[in-house]
Amino acid sequence: MNKKLIPLSALLLGLHATATSCKKAPDPSPALTKPGKTFVASVDQAVTREPMSWTHRVVEAGNYQVGMAWVEVKAGNEVEVSITAGGKLAKSLVARPGPAPQRFETRLEDLAAGDEITITATPKDASYRLGYQVAFGTPTFPGAQVFHVKDFGATGDGVTDDFAAIRRATVAALENGCGIVRFDGSKTYRAIGKSDFNEEPLFELKGAKDLKVEGNGATIVLHPPDALALIDGAENIQIDGFKIDYQPKPYYQGAIKKIDVAAMTLDVKVPERYPVPEIGKNEFRSPFFGRSFIPDAPGARSGHGENIYVEEVTRLKNDRHLRIHLRKTALGSDTPNAKLLPRIRKMVEQGATEFVVPHVKYGHRGYGTRITDSARVTLSNLHYYCVPHFWLPITHNTGPITLSNVDLKTPHPETELFVSWRDGLHIKNGRWGILIEDGDWDGASSYDDSFAIYSRAQKMVAVDGKKMTITPTFLSKEFFLWQAGDWASVWSPGQEKLRGMARVVGVQGKTGNQTFHVTLESMPAGAAKGDIVLHEESLNRGSVIRNCSTSNIGTENSSTRFRCVDVRFENNRFEDFHFWFHAGKNGPRPRDIVLKNNRVSDKRRGGIVFQQGLNCDLQDNQLNGVSLEFFKSENMHLAGNRWTGMKAEQPRVIARKGSTLQLTGDKQGSDPDSGKWIQHDNTSKVIRK
């Protein structure tokens, strides 16, 4: 699929509009012989005072999303917007005049063919305009031909290199126009390809369309730094039903026998369950660290540790008795001047028992799977045992993406402390919200954030009438994200105040430097050099994480950082998990976040932290050893949350630096001892109902 988006300037097929009511939709289409459209409807309603209604009849059964969805009240009183699907109300809202449009991104799940999606706008003495798109998120493959990998030479004996055979089967399925690549679920497929340092995806799906890969429970054994898949500019793709492992492993573990602080060395003995480790120096520039392990209790597989950067590995008495030579600083990392001597002393003082060592050649290289610039992609029933670096980056998605029952867990929690050297789910700049459901992760064995959902902010360099010159606050510019018709918001430098929002008219990205120019319909009043500018359409709006879990196995707690907008966490069980919602120096304020009916424990840091949160809901969560902490956060709603496992003096709720909270529910509102567990400074306000 190319990167051009469906424009918000026309009504597309399958959508019917009148000024006051819906026309009768046509009869359902006959059974499809090929996959239908991903983007099934688009509306960009000009300013009107009339009630409007649009109806779309579902052609293919499955899950739909309403995205890029907004209503702006230009003048007058208010406008009520409602969405019904399959005869049921899915969402309703009331929009009023203000500095920003109101958004109504919505998920419409399990619709049947013939169901109707109806969006209605009813003004009350108001003029308004409205826009949205409807996208189909479920991959479908009617009329697909099946291509068995065995017919292309794949043996599945766990020894023979099946890389080329699997590639041939995939190419044949793609060339067919709509194809299914099928594996024998009882077999193990070794996929080596080139055994070098170049990353090769087993399924290279650049510009691919209408492909399903059926693993049926088969095992894929990759050679690091190779990836299972690269899905780039693709549409209507599903990869289902695999167990994924690596050989050689990107790590090994050793029992610590001696720590020489002065010499900056660490002696370990490597168990027989690992191949004989390779020795030598790491020859590439990427940060190269191992992890210390300090168990919570003797024999425990949960604990804590730190990144310890490795210079060289040498042998001592035999092949399994090794000396790890450590660096004095974290050279190559984001904090290259960090001194490592205190971390090594801490290992001695706190009784570190094991060290997780990167493979001297293949540790910290490659990815598990990547999805970029794609739409209508589902990964399902995948179980990764480990990955050599990052696990699953998803960037710039242009349509719905779903991860269903996609796990990152070691098969041997009784011994292993590793699943990945860096982030797990790394989700960035999505135009459509991602659905992550039923995933299970050994987050404490992933040595960075378990998952991160974020977008980059821009900084205003200059203002000239309706044109602004902006530059990224971090890394390179991504002007290609900005499209005519998108919304941009302008904030004061610390994002304390929203100056206003306006739609994009044009973008000039090729300036020869890190700046680019964006022309708006109108420049928000007060916009000035130094302000923060956000691209409102790539904030991962409408993402949902539900029915997922993390374990506490590993050398730290699971963690996550969110620089995002309109994300829901529902019915998750996160063990030893630290939430951090913040804008930082390069992201948006966390707005419209919902945490509902989750069970969260956090023994190490003990907090769910919101910094500059805005209009967020925390409802019916069970919190074990976890305080809710708010800093510079406004209009935060808490209802029905329950606490267990709190330390004697640990507050349940903390409000600082001008935060405003509303607490509702028996435990949070009417408890006579509530003052003992709510702490707030004189600049913050807590309202109990």
Q: Could you please describe the fold and organization of this structure?
A:
By secondary structure, the chain is mainly beta. Among the domains are: 122 residues, Jelly Rolls; 108 residues, Elongation Factor Tu (Ef-tu), domain 3, CATH 2.40.30; 81 residues, Elongation Factor Tu (Ef-tu), domain 3, CATH 2.40.30; 113 residues. The protein has 4 helices and 56 strands. The protein has a 16-stranded parallel sheet that branches. Strand 4 and strand 5 form a beta hairpin. The radius of gyration is 27 Å and the shape is globular. 47% of the residues are buried.
Give the topology.
Layout lengths: L14 E4 L20 E10 L3 E6 L4 E24 L2 E8 L6 E2 L2 E6 L4 E21 L8 E4 L8 E5 L1 H14 L2 E4 L5 E4 L9 E6 L2 E14 L4 E6 L2 E12 L4 E10 L4 E5 L10 E2 L7 E7 L7 E2 L2 E9 L5 E6 L14 H10 L3 E5 L10 E4 L2 E10 L7 E4 L5 E8 L16 E4 L5 E4 L2 E2 L9 E4 L3 E7 L2 E6 L14 E5 L6 E11 L7 E5 L11 E4 L7 E4 L2 E2 L7 E6 L3 E4 L2 E2 L2 E5 L12 E3 L2 E3 L5 E5 L5 E3 L2 E3 L2 E5 L4 E4 L2 E3 L8 E4 L3 E5 L1 H5 L3 H4 E3 L4 E4 L1
Parallel strand pairs: 9-11, 10-12, 11-14, 12-14, 13-15, 14-16, 15-25, 16-26, 25-27, 26-28, 27-29, 28-30, 29-32, 30-39, 31-40, 32-41, 39-42, 40-43, 41-44, 42-45, 43-46, 44-47, 45-48, 46-49, 47-50, 48-51, 49-52, 50-53, 51-54, 53-55, 54-56
Antiparallel strand pairs: 1-3, 2-8, 3-8, 4-5, 4-6, 4-7, 4-8, 17-18, 17-24, 18-23, 19-22, 20-21, 20-22, 20-24, 22-23, 33-34, 33-38, 34-37, 35-36, 35-38, 36-37
